Amino acid sequence: MAKSIMIQGTMSNVGKSLVVAGLCRIFKEDGYKVAPFKSQNMALNSYITEEGLEMGRAQVVQAEAAKIKPSVLMNPILLKPTNDIGSQVIVNGEVLGNMNARDYFKYKKSLVPEVMKAYNALAEEYDIIVIEGAGSPAEINLKENDIVNMGMAKLAKSPVLLVGDIDRGGVFAQLIGTIMLLEDDEKSMIKGTIINKFRGDKTILDPGIEMLEDMSKIPVVGLTPYMHVDIEDEDSLSERFTKGKSVGLVDIVVIRLPRISNFTDFNMLENIEGVSLRYVSKAEDIKNPDMIIIPGTKNTMEDLMWVRQSGVEAVVLKEASKGKIIFGVCGGYQMLGEELCDPYNVEAGRSIKGLGLLPIKTTFEKEKTRTRVKGSFKNIDGPLKKLINVNFQGYEIHMGITQLLNESAPMNEITDTEGIIKEDGVALNNVYGTYVHGIFDEEEVVKGIVSILFKNKGLDYENIKTFDFVNYKEEQYDLLAKGLRESLDMKKIYEILEAGV
């Protein structure tokens, strides 16, 4: 059976996911078979495996860092928030149903056998399992029946490294306060602490580190720097949403929906020289873009009402009338249609009018479509017509079935993992829609779109640099591992791993 080490944090967004990814790459570099694991993840960014099962994207990133295929075993429980008090519960990649927070809190303990079945399956195949916690282990109102922090550490008999974020301030209080709120047996499982996202002169911090170790009786095993690595993240606090970005030669706006999902769809567009990709949640901030993308969402109908009430709809319609490229993905594709109907109360339980830019009607069904696909653009008109016959791959993950109206032709021909050929999407003049997540991960697709946007502005695209996205990600994982290896006491971490609890 594999040895394990668990990364917990003093709160959300302290860097747990990246520390896990970095350790996965380090252990891989050192010759071990390593896999990530997170018993329960809450995120709207999800991924479809080759088997058509749904899992959290953070564990996909960590699997990439470990140079292994993502498996739903790495994330047996995924919670996808549907509103402020409820989530869709996904177990072993399949939808169990929607639950409010209180009902799930009572129910989750019954999922322990499923969690351990997944964990043990990984432990039989790999040498090391790097487990990620969620939020903080010191949420005293949630500790009962915990299955993701200390509860999971006990189940896996795993030593714990506790991560605090110095960049947000109060790191010593974070770490000491968290430890003090734990039970004695839980405290004994913490074998080291990590101060993350440090900037400045380490010697100034040394007295604090000495006091922290003296008070906690736990060694500090790392002072990790604030690393400028470009690695996918799924946290709602993603810096992608908040960082200010000046408008480039070509400006692409992504509408930041309240329940935006799979925003990693657009990462490749962020890395094209001369292109700005801005996430916008206010109508007045849309300004004068060259292209507007409406992304996926966990709740299409509620987010469509937000688009309408916030004034974003009026701006999108105005820009569409000017001939600007409007592109909808998944839920965004559904919004662009004539009507959305929900006869089975999957979302809002009624029918509402769409933006009316595409000749489609969407009906929400009880079953979720989940599959990886390969395909190509076939019937595409307007400014993006040069994409005809360009290939792409990605995945579908949606509840709705979309019907083309007015004898419209589908934009894409796609083939799923079972070899079934299907139709997808529609194009009308300068408005486009598809169900395929990951369609912008293909260099030829991105290059085609960006070259058109440059040409529309009378600019020369030939000198704009593109890059191999797969190699770029590998370089970023290597940079992350290098930064962690230089700042963590890996000798001590290996000792902790070997000793267990």
Helix content: 25-40%
Alpha-beta classification: alpha/beta
Rounded to the nearest angstrom, the radius of gyration is: 23 Å
The structural domain count equals: 2
Based on Cα principal axes, name the global outline. globular
Unreliable stretches: none
By DSSP, the count of extended strands is 25
* Alpha-carbon distance between the two ends: 15 Å
Beta-strand residue fraction: 25-35%
Largest sheet geometry:
11 strands, mixed
CATH topology category name of the largest domain: Rossmann fold
The CATH class of the largest domain: Alpha Beta
Mean pLDDT: 93
InterPro entries: Class_I_gatase-like, CobQ/CobB/MinD/ParA_Nub-bd_dom, CobQ_GATase1, CobQ_N, CobQ_synth, GATase_3, P-loop_NTPase
Active site: 330 (nucleophile), 437
Pfam families: CbiA, GATase_3
Keywords: Cobalamin biosynthesis, Glutamine amidotransferase
Describe the protein:
The protein is of the alpha/beta class and 501 residues long. Helix content is 30%, strand content 30%. The chain is built from 15 helices and 25 strands. Helix 1 (16-29) packs parallel to helix 2 (57-65).
